[in-house]
Every structure is written in C-alpha cells, then in structure tokens.
C-alpha cells in the first residue's frame, strides 16, 4: 500500500437489518487498521444503528428502506461531499474479508484503475449458491449491452477512487445499481478492472441479497432505465 495510507480510505457498508453481524464486521475492519467506517443504515427496523454506534463506526441513516442502490448512492454522495479520495463498498453481512481490501488497492495501483471490482469468479471455482450463479450470469449479460465485460457484475465488494466518486451519477435504488455502475463507468470512460476475491457464505449471508425474483425485477428496471437514456 505504498501510495495509499489507510487513513485516506473510507469503508462504506450498506446495511438493512444487520444487527446480528454488524459489530463483528466493524471489529474486523478495525483490526485491519481501517478507521473511517460508515454504515449506511437503509431504514433498518432492528438495532443496526445502535450496534454500529456502540462499535465506534459512523452511521449514515436513511429514514425508509429503499434498497441497496439507494444506500450506495447515499454513500457516494457522502464521499463526494466529504472529498474522500478512496472509498470501499462492502456487504455488511460478513461475507467479504476486510483483509482483502488490500488486494483491491494493489490492483488499483497496478492497473491505474478508477474502479476495482472484487470478483468471485476469477482464478478459483466459486462456492456461490446455484441460484446466485444464475442471477449473476443473467446480470452479466446486461453489462454486455453497455459494452462492458466483467465476470462478476453483482459483486458488492468494490473500490472507487476520487475520479469515479466525482463522476458517477447513479439512479437505481435496488440491486440493479451494480450493473448500472458498470454501464456508467464505461460511459464516463473510467478504467474499471477486476481482481479475484474469496467470499464467506454462511446460512445468514445466503438468506440476504439477490434471488431469482429480484433478478427479474432488476432486469425490468435496467431495461427501463436503459431505454430512457436513449
């Protein structure tokens, strides 16, 4: 991490009802030396906000639950206004390893990238549940429409530099924002690359996130959004 220091890196965790795990995620991030941790509480009805504050992280609270896209957009807006140089987006359910943030940072430096996506499909066979593999492959097809080719368009583990933070203008509220970010990065001529990551799938993390029905809804929103752009 020669060019970057951890004090310049902000970690954002979009979260909805993650009281069960959020303290441990924050603890793991702090043990890796990251101090600037923000949980974007997407209108949680449990103790996510309380436990986040008790763990010593910041809370960016959204009054109503609007989806991971809305939480991600709120995180990017916060980073833009704060003048953040580098921001990491991670799932709050504990499936991502904080120790692997350095892999994203190293790849950003090596490739002189603006965005690095942590891919679950590079270098090793993914242990992703079958339904999510299907969802991800369908979503990847939509990235091709935007003239972008990535192996893991739905990964929530991403690193953005200030150029990306300042130039991305995202609109979607739900999971479609992952694909939208890839599209918009291509439109803005941002350098987007991937690097392999490991993921910890637990019964808890598998109960959260995407499913096939959400995939259909996401596809509809993406097509609708894409048509309105032209």
Averaging pLDDT over every residue, what do you get? 86
Q: Under CATH, the topology is which?
A: Spore Coat Polysaccharide Biosynthesis Protein SpsA, Chain A
CATH superfamily: Spore Coat Polysaccharide Biosynthesis Protein SpsA, Chain A
- Low-confidence runs: none
What's the architecture in CATH terms? Alpha-Beta Complex
Structural class call reads alpha/beta
Rounded to the nearest angstrom, the radius of gyration is: 16 Å
What is the number of domains?
1
Roughly what fraction of the amino acids lie in strands?
Answer: 15-25%
Strand order across the largest sheet: 3-2-1-4-6-5-7
Shape assignment = globular
Q: Can you summarize the main beta sheet?
A: 7 strands, mixed
Q: Report helical residue fraction.
A: 40-55%
Query: What is the tally of helical segments?
Result: 9
Order of helices and strands: EHEHEHEHEHEHHEHH
In short:
The protein has helices spanning 22-31, 48-54, 68-82, 101-111, 130-145, 162-167, 177-187, 203-206, 212-229, and strands at residues 9-15, 36-42, 58-62, 86-89, 115-119, 158-161, 192-196.
Explain the overall architecture.
The chain has 230 residues and is of the alpha/beta class. It has one domain: Spore Coat Polysaccharide Biosynthesis Protein SpsA, Chain A (Alpha-Beta Complex), CATH 3.90.550. The protein has nine helices and seven strands; from the N terminus they run βαβαβαβαβαβααβαα. A seven-stranded mixed beta sheet has the order 3-2-1-4-6-5-7, sandwiched between helices. β1, α1 (22-31) and β2 (36-42) form a beta-alpha-beta unit.
């Amino acid at each position: 991490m020669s060019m970057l220091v951890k004090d310049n890196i902000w970690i954002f965790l979009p979260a909805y009802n993650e009281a069960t795990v959020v303290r441990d995620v924050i603890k793991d991030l702090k043990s890796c030396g990251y101090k600037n941790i923000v949980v974007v509480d997407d209108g949680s009805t449990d103790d996510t906000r309380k436990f986040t504050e008790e763990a010593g992280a910041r809370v960016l609270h959204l009054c109503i639950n609007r989806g991971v896209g809305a939480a991600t957009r709120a995180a990017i807006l916060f980073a833009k206004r704060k003048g953040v140089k580098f921001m990491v987006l991670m799932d709050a359910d504990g499936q991502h390893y904080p120790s692997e943030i350095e892999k994203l940072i190293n790849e950003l430096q090596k490739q002189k990238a603006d965005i690095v996506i942590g891919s679950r499909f590079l270098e090793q066979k993914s242990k992703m549940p079958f339904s999510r593999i299907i969802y991800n492959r369908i979503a990847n097809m939509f990235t091709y429409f935007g003239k972008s080719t990535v192996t893991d368009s739905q990964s929530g583990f991403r690193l953005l530099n200030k150029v990306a933070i300042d130039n991305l203008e995202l609109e979607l509220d739900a999971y479609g924002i992952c694909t939208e970010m890839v599209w918009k990065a291509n439109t803005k001529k941002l350098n987007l690359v991937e690097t392999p990551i490991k993921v910890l799938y637990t019964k808890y993390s598998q109960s959260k996130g995407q499913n096939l029905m959400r995939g259909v809804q996401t596809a509809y929103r993406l097509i609708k959004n894409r048509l309105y752009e032209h």
